[in-house]
Structures are given as structure tokens and as C-alpha cells.
From TrEMBL:
InterPro entries: Cyt_trans-like, ICL/PEPM, PEnolPyrv_PMutase_core, Pyrv/PenolPyrv_kinase-like_dom, Pyrv_kinase-like_dom_sf, Rossmann-like_a/b/a_fold. One of its GO terms (molecular function) is phosphoenolpyruvate mutase activity. Pfam families: CTP_transf_like, PEP_mutase. Belongs to the isocitrate lyase/PEP mutase superfamily. PEP mutase family. NCBIfam families: cyt_tran_rel (TIGR00125), PEP_mutase (TIGR02320). Keywords: Isomerase, Nucleotidyltransferase, Pyruvate, Transferase. This is phosphoenolpyruvate mutase.
Amino acid sequence: MPRKIVYVAMSADLIHPGHINILKIAKDYASKIKGEVVVGLLTDKAIASYKRLPYMNYEQRKAVLESIALIDRVIPQDTLSYEGNIRLLKPAFVIHGDDWKSGAQVKTRQNVLDTLAELGCGELIEPHYTQGISSTQLNENARAIGISTNARLSLLRRLISAKTPLRFIETHSALSALIAQNAFVNRNGTKVEFDGFWSSSLTDSTSRGKPDIEAVELQSRLNTINEIFEVTSKPLIYDADTGGKIEHFTFAVRSLERTGVSACIIEDKTGLKKNSLLGNEVAQTQDDIKDFCDKIRAGKEAQITSDFMIIARIESLILDKGMEDALNRAFAYVDAGADGIMIHSRHKSPNEILEFIAKFRAKNSLTPIVIVPTSFNEITAQELGEAGANIIIYANHLLRAGFVAMKEVAQGILENDKSAEIESKCMSVKEILSLIPGTI
Ligand code: SPV
Ligand code: MG
């Protein structure tokens, strides 16, 4: 006869006295019915469906819970909804703090009540929520402390396996990264925010007044990334242009890893690189498949962590070489060890990108696909994700937006010979000061 079950679901990323209180109550109920306390531990995927990834991965959180004597068993809860596990376990009691009677979790609670009623198997117990302590507060404290280099580096792989699509945005300075880090919207009860940053060669060069031709050296770009990392906690993907000479690329890979960058993208071009959106208006040479595969292999051999990703970017559609060439290259690059594929296009319509994704996915369901929808900007990230893409990069928008405002304001001051007229186009000094942590 299996033991009766008292069920508690939790994320358990930051265990606090509120959790222990709930677990003690669960244990009391379990003793009364000679049953066991089973914790349904939310998987990374379940947590990422409604908020940011937990600091610790599933296995780490499970290890912590399994050493708590109040708990008899830990099983995965793969969705925010309790329904699957309740049907599986038919618990005698489900325990949750009464704080979920209002707010974002109301629907989840109702679903627990409905499922228990339908099965006629158990009762929902809702102890009074422990005041004065919350995971949200602890999260804010943890964020203020920062994130370690390794934890940040490994975030990208964890995010890719936990959710689709991921939204990345170009940041070229600490300030633009702070704006990107804090932007969010609420869509259908879910918080949608950027999952990470793109260090763009175009905007990194442009913000230094230089052309996008690999003229800004790695060290200078790493300085900017270090400044971004000082004030943020999200992962970063680095635009490594062509990767340069193979012998230099291997050093670059290790420098990026030491900094905590999660991935670099190298494009299959040789010679003097020009920005892809210029297409065939300028002379651009695509690399030989074999030579580019050698570069990917050398990079993979050079990396020191297992989490760092080298993503191969295919320029066939940019250079009008055709779909077949793009697909041949994609499969060859994956065979050479690429951890992901970026396919680029400069068309207004997303059709060729969608065709590529469908044809690639017909043979390869796992390798992450990266898309940069600068010219085909009517398709949503959600739609690209549903088509099979994993990472959507908004590659240059923050810098372009800043330019418009700065030009207008500089012009306006000269025209009026004073600044009163353009004041409304500027953020107030007070707001600027409050944006930056540690100012006040
Ligand atoms: C960049 O942002 O620098 C890129 C993307 O490489 S693109 O400009 O579209 O080539
Ligand atoms: Mg670039």
C-alpha cells in the first residue's frame, strides 16, 4: 500500500524561513496520516515560463532540498500548473501559503482546487504567509551583489534549454545595458523581458566613430563588456565578425570566456569584412567551407569551459548564393562542432529565413538557430520561435534610437541658441540620477 502524500510545489532557489514554515506544516500533516512529504520542484523550464531563470539549476536545487529532513521525496514539476503531478500522485493534502489567493497565481490555485475536486482525493491547506520575507526581496539583494563570471557564462545554455524564443538586444555601453536589463512588459500574465545582450560589431564600431570593418580591437570591446557586466546580470553574445586568423581566434575565445561571455558568433567571410546589410553593394568574399570548418574546430578545441558556445553565421543569403549553399554550409558547420547556426538575410520579407529554418529543422531538430530580424522587422520574436528559431537578436536598435534623439537635440540648441526648447526631448537629470544604482 503506497504511503499517502502531502504535496508541496516550490522553486527553492533561495530557501528562506517561509519555506521551512510551509514544510514543517506539511510534515505535521504527513505525520497525522502516516504519509510522506513530496516536493514538486519546479524545473528550469517551468520557472522560465513565468519569470527569470533560477540562480541554481534543477539538480543543484534538488540537492539542497534532499538534505532537508522535513522532505521525504523530491520530484520534478515540469509546468507552473500542479495538475499533472496531482493526477499522478493523488495527494491527501496540497500545501501552499495563502498569499496566492490574490495576484498572478490566482489561476494556478483555482486549477489545484478544480483538479482536487474532480479527483475527489485531497484538500488544499493554505497556511498564513510568512510576512517580512520573500524570494522577490532576496532576489533583489542577490542581484545587487551581482553574478559570478561562470554563472553568467553558463546562463545561455540553460536559457536555451528552458525557453523559446530568447530575446537579445544590442548594448554598446553600461547605460544602454541598464536600459535593456530593466525593460519589461506584461503579456497575458507573463513577464516578458530581454534575456540577454548582443555585443554588435556594427554598434561597437559606430559608437567609436569607426566603420564596421573589424577595426575596433578585441581589448577595447572587452573593456566595454566589462563595464556592462559590472552593472548587469544577464548573459551576452559577442559578435566576433570573421573571427580573424585562426591563430588569433583561439586567443579571442579564451579572452571572451575569462570575461564571462556566453557565446561568440563568427561569420563565414574572409578578407576585409564589410557590414552584411550592405550585401553585394560592396565587395565581400565568403569563406571556403573547409577553411571555415577548420576555424570552428580550432575555436572549439581552444575553449576552456564546456559551456561557451561558438555559433557559425552563414552569409549565403546575404551574398545571393542561394538556399542550397546556405543549408550545405549549415550542416557542414554543425558537423565541424558549431554549437549553433545564425542565418542572416537583408530582405524585407522573412520568407527565405522561414524556408531555411524549416529545411534545417527537417534534418536537425536540436542545434540552436539565431535570427537577426533587422530588415524583416514585421515578424515577431514569438512567430520566429514558433517557426523553430531559438534566439532573436535586435542587433542595433538602442544605438540607432539614441542617435535620433542626440542629433535633434544638438541641432535644436544651435537653432534656438539655448536649451529650453529641447528640454522635453531629454530625460530629466533627476530621472537619470535615479536610473543609476548607487547615485542617491
Ligand atoms: C552587427 O550587429 O554588427 C551584426 C548584424 O553583425 S548586421 O549588422 O545585421 O550584420
Ligand atoms: Mg557585426
